[in-house]
């Protein structure tokens, strides 16, 4: 069989149920659990996997005492299956919205820590203009939204690149920088201090983002520059909401974006400590996949993000908005 004929044969044999099984196996690494996830019997799932591997002509998984581990070619195939299934799911959802009289769908990944004002204002403007547009917002940290973008589970992201080589896969347009603050609850013994150093804070409990996040990397760099080790009493938490809840319930310290804690500080639930930190954190902005044009709703949302970003920058600098042209 020549190369073209074998490609056609592979395409004809693969079904989306096969892709769903591969994604479920990648998540569970167990045939029984994967079968349950896609609602088929285990023997059927085993036969489907055998059919898929026969169609590809190589093993996707190695079976051993530890379970199922993807082979090198399996890793590539599983990544494709996940992307293809995500594309089909989004297409079906978009079609369903249009069938019901809606106007499409937009799925955005966003770092909820650094961009709540910008995101909320842009989404509000978009929903005012297009109330029937279905909008989904996913993610919390930059590493999460970049992964979602890579898997094609979102149209675009509001975040930061998280590794030096990601510029090869994604376009990045910086929108703003975000001041970071060290905060504690108002009942914390350090809340009334007019002067405190990072060294004095190390022995207190801390809540920090996972090590894969840019903010955590910056925090560790700040500690290294000060000759300090990572706090021993540290809770890792990717959720901004959960971090705020933890801060309000015990004497922990956390490094959070100013826009996130602004209302908590004004309401005297939290206190910002007099420590300068995080100046070198790179700005956040719009992330899109290279070589893939955005659909019209996504393009329009990007324009709104740019406009809101400029407006917020003018407010921060106390610069009046330009007068409309006559």
Automatic annotation (TrEMBL):
The keyword NAD does not apply. It comes from Paraburkholderia saeva. Belongs to the LysR transcriptional regulatory family. Gene3D superfamilies: 3.40.190.290, Winged helix-like DNA-binding domain superfamily/Winged helix DNA-binding domain. GO terms for molecular function: DNA binding; DNA-binding transcription factor activity. The gene is gbpR_5. This is HTH-type transcriptional regulator GbpR. Residues 14-71 form the HTH lysR-type domain. One of its GO terms (cellular component) is cytosol. InterPro entries: GbpR_PBP2 (IPR037405), HTH-type_LysR_regulators (IPR050950), LysR_HTH_N (IPR000847), LysR_subst-bd (IPR005119), WH-like_DNA-bd_sf (IPR036388), WH_DNA-bd_sf (IPR036390). Keywords: DNA-binding, Transcription, Transcription regulation. PANTHER family: HTH-TYPE TRANSCRIPTIONAL REGULATOR YBHD (PTHR30419), NITROGEN ASSIMILATION TRANSCRIPTIONAL ACTIVATOR-RELATED (PTHR30419:SF8).
């Amino acid at each position: 069989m020549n190369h073209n004929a074998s490609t056609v044969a592979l395409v004809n044999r693969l079904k989306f149920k096969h892709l769903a099984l591969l994604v479920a196996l990648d998540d569970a690494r167990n045939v029984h659990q994967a079968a349950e996830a896609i609602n088929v019997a285990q023997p059927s799932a085993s036969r489907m996997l055998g059919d898929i591997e026969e169609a590809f002509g190589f093993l996707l998984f190695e079976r051993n005492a530890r379970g199922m581990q993807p082979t090198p070619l399996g890793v590539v195939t599983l990544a494709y299956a996940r992307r293809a299934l995500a594309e089909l799911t989004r297409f079906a959802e978009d079609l369903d919205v249009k069938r019901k009289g809606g106007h499409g769908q937009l799925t955005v990944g966003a770092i909820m820590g650094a961009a709540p004002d910008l995101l909320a204002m842009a989404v509000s403007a978009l929903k005012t203009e297009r109330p029937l547009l279905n909008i989904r917002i996913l993610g919390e940290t930059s590493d999460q939204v970049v992964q979602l973008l890579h898997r094609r589970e979102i149209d675009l992201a509001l975040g930061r690149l998280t590794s030096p080589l990601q510029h090869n896969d994604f376009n990045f347009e910086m929108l703003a920088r975000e001041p970071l603050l060290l905060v504690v609850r108002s009942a914390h013994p350090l809340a009334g201090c007019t002067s405190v150093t990072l060294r004095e804070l190390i022995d207190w409990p801390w809540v920090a983002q996972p090590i894969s996040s840019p903010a955590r990397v910056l925090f560790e760099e700040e500690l290294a520059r000060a000759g300090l080790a990572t706090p021993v009493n540290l809770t890792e938490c990717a959720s901004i909401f959960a971090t705020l809840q933890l801060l309000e319930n015990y004497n922990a310290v956390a490094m959070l974006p100013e826009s996130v804690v602004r209302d908590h500080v004004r309401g005297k639930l939290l206190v910002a400590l007099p420590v300068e930190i995080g100046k070198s954190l790179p700005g956040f902005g719009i992330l899109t996949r290279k070589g893939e044009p955005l659909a019209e709703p996504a393009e329009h949302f990007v324009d709104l993000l740019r406009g809101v970003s400029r407006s917020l920058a003018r407010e921060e600098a106390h610069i009046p908005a330009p007068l409309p042209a006559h």
